[in-house]
Amino acid sequence: SLPDMDLELLHDPEDELLCASLLDEVRAALGRAPLGSKRCWRLLMPAQLQAQVRAELLRLACSEPCGLRGALLDLCVEHGKACHDVGHIAADPGVVPTFQLTLVLRLDSRLWPKIQGLFASGPAFAPLKLSTGFRVMKKKLYSSEQLLIEEC
């Protein structure tokens, strides 16, 4: 593994722009996330979580042949013991994916007692805040290497 300073030198400026666009798509997918019942929730992504996810995506992409452009991102939200699929995003639809990232975000557990009652009744759209903790799994699509799982 390369030292952090060397990793910063390997960052592609195009990846920086692509990552910002990818995070916009993640926020849009979270804005229309179906969690459980037939209700839609608007999941709010705190700035600290966005910064951590951005850094992790760029770090995981720097060793890939196409950089972040080769990423296929599966977005999930952990809710209780269930993990809900929120979306699938190709970082660059014009590039054949070389690796798959599964990003698992969590609801802020401090809110759970307050929102339990919302799942049965209430408005059709309700905002929920995500925790700053997340898990990301990386699978290379061109190699038989083991799955890499990181908890942040």
From TrEMBL:
Subcellular location: Cytoplasm; Mitochondrion
UniProtKB keywords: Apoptosis, Cytoplasm, Mitochondrion
Molecular function, one GO term: 14-3-3 protein binding
One GO process term, biological-process aspect: negative regulation of TOR signaling
One Pfam family recorded for the sequence: RTP801_C
CC terms in the record's Gene Ontology section: mitochondrion
Chief location category: cytoplasm
Protein family (similarity comment): Belongs to the DDIT4 family.
Protein name as annotated: DNA damage-inducible transcript 4 protein
